[in-house]
Fold this protein.
Amino acid sequence: MAAVEVKHLFKSYADVMAVDDLTFNVEKGEILGLIGPNGAGKSSSIKMILDFMKPDTGSVRIFGEPMNEALKDRIGYLPEERGLYKRLTAVELILYLASLKGMDRKTAEERANGLLDKVGMLENKHKKNKEMSKGMGQLIQFVVTVVHDPDLIILDEPFSGLDPIRTASVQEIISGLREQGKTVILSTHQMNKVEELCDSVLMINKGKTVLYGDISTSRAKFRKHSVRIEAEGSWSHIPGVIEIRPHNGFVELMLEPDVTSQDVLDNVRAQGVSINRFEVTTPSLNEIFLELAGTNYE
Amino acid sequence: MNKIGLMFKHEFIQAIKKTGYIVLTLAIPVLALIIIGVVQLFSTLFEPAVNELTRVGYVDQVGIFNEYPDQELIQFIPYHSEKNANAALVEGEIDEFFLIPADFSSTVSIQRYTMARELETPVVKKYAISSFLIKNLLKDEVPPGIIDTVLSPIDMSVIRLDQDGSVADSQSNIGNIIIPGVYAFLLSMALMFGNNSLISGLGEEKESRLIEVLTSSVSVSQMLIGKVLALGAAGLLQVVLWLISAPLILDLASSTFGGLLANIQIPPNFMVFGVVYFVLGYLLFAVLSVMIGGIVSTAADGHNLSMFYIMAGYIPLWTFGAFIAIPEHPIWVVLSIFPITAPTMTMLRMGVSVIPGWQLVASLGVLILSIAIGQFMSVKIFRTFMLMYGKRPRAREIFQVLKTS
């Protein structure tokens, strides 16, 4: 049984199809990266998963059940745009929202202290939210999302507004969640974070799925018929290479259709060039994203 | 504690900790104490000196006004001519003088001369001069007892009767309307505060997207019921605190406004209905606030939109003068059944008459029904539009949602 099972989800606003036949599963203990350009339908999909709004057609099941009140206690949600009750202190807010998730005060307090310590916010726990910077507020909201030990965590842009040190802290906690067998849906524009953290990726554009699968397989699908070389020396012509594209610190060799990377490696070495790095070109998620999203990406 | 209870507890604590709530709750007893203090201070400062005699000169060109020179604290001193009287006024022997012309009996006109700047002749002086003139005019015509009757011809009292002709338990007088009037004013203020408080809270939650976090934890119904009940409880606490402080304030006030307070009557069952209507009024305005909170993106937008029913709630206060003049007009019955004005209008009516049972039942019934329907509609509206940021739904869309539900 998948932790999240989405089947043929459709949602339209007026004459715009926001989500168009979206189907995917997230297994227990898996981290799924949900990516796509602005307006692709990510937020609408998340809101339908959480039952904030109803799909036109299609179904969502969480841990094998349609969304219900009891399931809400097992879910942690961090919205993309966020704020806090300004008059409450950080710990008051965390304990109140944890209580709404059914967690007793003592356990919530212990977990809150642990999480606040991990993100470097323990000393600020009695500070009023209105006195906090945007980044501090983001961290408090992240703690609110996971303090009740949810089984499914949905994070919408969890790294926005965080400095590198705090980003690393949050990233470490998310990695830890997978080790604890938690399921995470991570919606972000930061492709490197998806590559570092996620087991699988779902890319949507104009409401449609354009890429779905585990990260390595998905990247392999977009592997180009080229190699990247970082080398010392010079060469004039390499047999089997159609084009040489210089980049910052390396060159990319575009290969003829029937030539293998091994052939090219042999040909380069034959020219007496000293090779420091040689790899078959596999595009990053960012490159795939740009390629698939095309001009729609803002 | 269930989730409604948790929401209730949080919202209640937040509501009573708000500066506006604390100020309004404390302001009423504090303001009353300040008024009592100021009145006592002024009455001490400006109390007329005991037995201070005012000397008023007069020139009698008719020749019959020579008796009854002492009228209470005013002494009338005759002068032979206007010139003499004027000189006495300038010398400070008298405070003012008046001239009774020879044709007074046909014109009843006199001229009063004074150095004081005044728009009208003070009532006390006017009464004293009238008494002096009437007594002298009638001294040889009628017995002394009749003169007193002429000066003060009637002492009328009004006794209100029930439909069966028996004397009513509650008698109408201006004192009866004081407590209901103060109550109506306080209730209107409290409803406005409660409304603003709830809309501000919802606006803050929508603007900060906390609403999404909350609804990922509790259902919209649980959230709104918790909020509405918390606001009702905050209102109840407010009125209870005022009621507790009332005996102390009335005790202090009795020495200041003794005569006025002696006339104050608290209508039968006023306390019970006062609390009931206070809570129901709070609940009604709370569900209306939730509806507004559901469709607006910001608190400021919500405050503007809520002005329509807030102002409607003030109608009984705006029309208070007309109500005092014609308390039995049918319009007041309509306003005491119309849910938005029912709490204040019904309580005002209790001050001047006994409200028929069917009208009370209708008033409470419509109010309770409105709250129930309003709560149902507010949940539907809120659930549909809570995630609509930056734009307000059109009326057609709202009606469509309600029609579908």
